[in-house]
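S1.2 Input.
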Amino acid sequence: MREVVGKNPIESILTVNRDAIQDEVRALMQSSLDAYGAGVAVTRIQMQKADPPPQVLDAYRDVQAARTDQTACATRRRPMPTRSCRRRREAQPASSKKAKPTSRR
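S1.3 Output.
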């Protein structure tokens, strides 16, 4: 477990990459057991708890909060398409607005 966890970034261990890490640990453990001739089949590995070390926990939380703030700011800076189109239409001078075609029967 330590070998696989040590090769991966902490963020992927704590969030999105847990399944791949569990699979890699299972395969590595199975190959070690096979090399010993143990006759044991590892069917599943499940990481129950993965936390940053206590020494860096506060710093890790600060980084996560900063990333959340950065994402929120980036989202607020992007106008919604409908709002953007409406602003462009309202900014056009009246003479350049096209009249809507009427249907003749």
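S1.4 Remarks. The mean pLDDT is 77.
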